[in-house]
Amino acid sequence: MKKLVIFGVGLIGGSVALALRKAYPELHIVGIGRALQLHDTNLQTAQKLGVIDEIGIDLGQALESATLILIATPVAQTPAILQFILPHLNKNTVITDAGSTKADVVDYATSILGERVSQFVPAHPIAGAEKSGVTAANATLYFGKNVIITPIAGTNSTAIDMVTAMWQATGAVINRMPPTQHDSIFAAVSHLPHLLAFALVEELATRPDAQDFFKFAASGFRDFTRIAGSSPEMWRDISLANSKALLGELAAYQTQLSLIENLLKNNDSAGLQSLFERASAARNAWAHQQAITDKEQTDKQ
Amino acid sequence: MKKLVIFGVGLIGGSVALALRKAYPELHIVGIGRALQLHDTNLQTAQKLGVIDEIGIDLGQALESATLILIATPVAQTPAILQFILPHLNKNTVITDAGSTKADVVDYATSILGERVSQFVPAHPIAGAEKSGVTAANATLYFGKNVIITPIAGTNSTAIDMVTAMWQATGAVINRMPPTQHDSIFAAVSHLPHLLAFALVEELATRPDAQDFFKFAASGFRDFTRIAGSSPEMWRDISLANSKALLGELAAYQTQLSLIENLLKNNDSAGLQSLFERASAARNAWAHQQAITDKEQTDKQ
């Protein structure tokens, strides 16, 4: 890999850059600027920190010789960026992204890139942090983390290999699945929990006596609602992009809540206990498995 | 204060004992044993660690000279314990508890203790940890934490003063409110979030392909579901004891979810953004205020 062009040099894009510098010492990294409303101050910081070598003022020049183009902006910007890229897209250049939803990105790419969609490998790294921006970027963000790539029938196999190698170089674990399966899994384990946390805080915050409640909220509330502090724009985009799967998960969850409501109404002590036992055992087994996986990754590192 | 008798020398009761040792060096602390199904090994550990001075094998002797009796067992044991106490209750002895629900405890105390209910001060310390048992107890658990006391019309004011002084000696901040207000607040900020977290894990865990989902759950899921790893027995008891307030909160939450469901169905980008913005701002303002309060308490300490 000779030249990497990154749209969006924040936590996600910046951390890829830092990790790849170690794997490919000769790699030239360009961050894309102003034309796509990226903040110049952020790009200047990225250059000062050595995250990127060059700010891509001239879009055409930056793109035409790129080995790999990584789109790491908020996902709603992806269609506009693909349109910018298309006229400058060399036939050997590979494009990938890091968006949290995949079926919508595949649809955009198919309609915008046409037959050149074969050069596009949709991907989603399952890593992030409460912090954002290039100052939060670090070379080990992806170490031991899952990255999901969702190729379609027309995706070029050399393109898949290049994106796989790129993520492996960051220390990530690669998984492949169809875009719709990706969106269905993340609707359940990520998008729905965010919606539920936003809903709880909204419901409390809009009460006239909200402060009487917030005053006594403690550590359980803190952890449960942490994700309700996430970016409203990002979660609006994800919710709309994945609304079909998310509505399905929301309906299943509402059914579950109605079951619990009935257990409470019927004073069903045994029913509640058995439900709480299953959930508690499943949650603790999951956390135990996560701890084992984390330790294995730390040991490798 | 001369003699403190504690039913349930675990994290909660043990931490009270350790904190009070500092404030009242002459205090004699008795832990109550076998008759009420407490584990002897736990009490022996408590004595070895210096948390208690004596294991209360003889219930009558232990209780008759007590200045203060603290009930810090799971809340479902409270009625039986009050019945045990009553025949041995000196007229100057004060009883308090540390249960997570208050209206039910007040009802039990009123019906079991009769006019002696004037000696009972219902209380709830808002502190805890994922750990449990006396080995997790520590003298600073309550420092800067809220303790809510919920006296009723007949509660003796000297009893209130004694329990207030006891909690202040642990470093806690005392709040007073009626039992029903307590239960209504905690239904919203604690009991409902627990129920919602149990519901999410249950809904996922009972799918045939649950592992495909759990495999990709990450840090947002981890924090959101942490409280679903809590004790099933304890949360069964709390849910049933406070079912009326909890059902009210659950209904309000379901209404909120239906609103969000409609925003998604209508592809209402502005509506979702404005809801997520309000929730995110409220959650971050709450966390900011908590950080200030925590820092003030740490500075005092």
Automatic annotation (TrEMBL), chains A, B:
InterPro entries reported for this sequence? 6-PGluconate_DH-like_C_sf, NAD(P)-bd_dom_sf, PDH_C, PDH_N, Preph/Arog_dehydrog
Functional pathway: Amino-acid biosynthesis; L-tyrosine biosynthesis; (4-hydroxyphenyl)pyruvate from prephenate (NAD(+) route): step 1/1
| A Pfam family matched in the record | PDH_N
Gene Ontology terms, MF aspect: NAD+ binding; prephenate dehydrogenase (NAD+) activity
Sequence ranges assigned to domain Prephenate dehydrogenase nucleotide-binding in this UniProt record = 16-175
EC number(s) in its UniProt entry? Answer: 1.3.1.12
Show where the Prephenate dehydrogenase dimerization domain sits: 179-276
Keyword annotations from UniProtKB, A to Z:
Amino-acid biosynthesis, Aromatic amino acid biosynthesis, NAD, Oxidoreductase, Tyrosine biosynthesis
Q: Name one GO biological process term.
A: tyrosine biosynthetic process
Reactions this protein catalyses: prephenate + NAD(+) = 3-(4-hydroxyphenyl)pyruvate + CO2 + NADH
Q: Which domain of life does this protein belong to?
A: Bacteria
Q: What family is reported?
A: Belongs to the prephenate/arogenate dehydrogenase family.
- What is this protein's name? prephenate dehydrogenase
